[in-house]
Design brief:
One of its GO terms (molecular function) is transferase activity. Helices cover 32% and strands 23% of the residues. It is of the alpha/beta class and 243 residues long. It has a single domain, classed as Rossmann fold.
Length: 243
């Protein structure tokens, strides 16, 4: 069976490794079935789409909507490389799942509107499937309404042309969409568990995803949440496209 490919951009080793572990667990994958490339560490190697079952792009400290002038050379390189890859993915309708940073990249690439209107602080939120989501081949595996973890400074405020809205949220109207039949993006994190987000907020405490002085309240909200459903999206992605 062909492996999946995770394209990661977190420079903090603990965060990068925890994200990888989260995708492995959520998809019931072993390391030989989920290859990882850390794009922040080195230029993207040649990627043969035919060697993979699908591509996953995880979250990132990068914001795709930031002005080019304030982006680091690494971010500019990463986004140039990912834009070229997205052209290939979209041309073939190749299986793709972009989470958080991934939804921003796809929105921007397809000329949707990406801005800070619907940012959400790190923590749990409620997600609801649209009618299209309830009948989608992946999202039908999820409950109609469920809790998920988010934490983002930018979000899709206008869908790209032709995109299908699959899920919405209490504080962010676009939580997931599909382009074509096989290209998906989510604002919420399908890989994050309660333990995973606690690790992430500790690492990114000073990055502006929440008020660091209110960390005790953020932790309390996480501890009070029951977030298990999003992993079913990863499982559905693997079951549908694994080959």
């Amino acid at each position: 069976m062909k492996p999946f490919l995770l394209l990661a951009t977190r420079s903090e080793d603990e965060a990068a490794d925890d994200e990888y572990a989260g995708f492995l667990a959520a998809g019931d994958l072993t390391p030989d079935r989920l290859h990882r490339v850390r794009l922040e560490a080195a230029p993207m190697p040649p990627i043969d789409l035919d060697a993979y079952s699908g591509i996953i792009v995880g979250g990132s400290p990068f914001n795709a909507s930031d002005p080019v002038a304030v982006k680091s050379p690494v971010q500019r390189r990463v986004e140039t490389e990912l834009a070229a890859l997205l052209d290939r993915v979209l041309a073939r309708d190749f299986p793709f799942l972009g989470a958080c940073y991934g939804v921003g990249l796809l929105t921007s690439h397809l000329r949707g509107r990406l801005d800070g209107t619907w940012s959400e602080e790190a923590g749990p939120t409620w997600i609801s499937l649209t009618d299209e989501g309830a009948s989608d081949q992946l999202f039908a595996a999820l409950a109609p309404t469920f809790e998920a973890f988010v934490g983002h400074k930018e979000a899709c405020s206008q869908l790209p042309p032709g995109a299908v809205l699959l899920a919405t949220g209490q504080n962010c109207p676009v939580q997931a969409f599909r382009v074509g039949r096989n290209v998906y993006a989510t604002q919420f994190h399908p890989e994050l568990t309660n333990a995973g987000i606690l690790t992430r907020i500790r690492i990114y405490r000073e990055y502006g995803y929440f008020d660091p002085n209110a960390m005790a309240d953020v932790i309390a909200a996480i501890d009070a949440s029951v977030v298990t459903e999003p992993a079913n999206l990863m499982k559905a992605f693997v079951l549908r496209f694994g080959r």
